[in-house]
Amino acid sequence: MFRHKGKSRRLVHNLKLASLLSFVAGIVNVAGFFAVQVLTTNITGHFAYFADGVVKKDAAATWVFLIYIISFLSGAFVSSTIVEITIKRNQRYANAIPVFTEILLLTGVALSGTGVAQKHAYIIACTLLFAMGLQNALVTRISNAVVRTTHLTGLFTDLGIELSQLFFYRKPEQKKKLNASIKLRFAIISFFFLGCIAGGIGYIKYNTGILYLAAGCLFVGIIYSDVRYRLLLLRKNFPDLKIHSGK
């Protein structure tokens, strides 16, 4: 799911990627809000607070929300930069480095504990926003902008449009494409919701330690993807070997 690109990328790869990363984003969304009372998976609301600070001439609030916005932007910028640099040297690690960077960031916040998180709320919020910007940029590149995992506003808009199109598009190829897209959007929404539930329940019991689950999911996902991809290559190079590669 992290390795397939271009024509080799199919719906099943996007479904796996969307399910995993949406679940992670859901955990981060709720855990970040519970820990520091800041939404850390998107910046839509932060623009409203930023504008409010400007209008009210509240310099402190203005700068805080501007830094939040820049943190998310920086994560996306760093993610894309890492991929561009790495892909020229060793394409194999192009997607792995941003994923492991996110794992380290989430693990660091998990290690900080609730006391540290609340004492340094701005730093924790910026760290999580950076991690989510990094994730969103990576998944956008991998899926050719088909999958978005850190916010749902656009997804619900697209889902509403596509559900209405089911009544008007009757050709088999059109229906097939619409059904695939709707299935993908439902997967993202469902796993984001499940991640939010897991993050909420987990935070009540483990505080910021619930972010270990998010980091663990990413680690398992990148290892699974690499092993699966290697098996597919082995099967392609040695077709006589009996290797179950899965779909």
Automatic annotation (TrEMBL):
The chain crosses the membrane at residues 20-40, 60-83, 95-114, 120-139, 184-204, 210-227. Pfam families: DUF1275. Keywords: Membrane, Transmembrane, Transmembrane helix. It comes from the Bacteria. PANTHER family: SLR0142 PROTEIN (PTHR37314), UPF0700 TRANSMEMBRANE PROTEIN YOAK (PTHR37314:SF4). This is DUF1275 family protein. It comes from Niabella ginsenosidivorans. The lineage of its organism: Bacteria, Pseudomonadati, Bacteroidota, Chitinophagia, Chitinophagales.
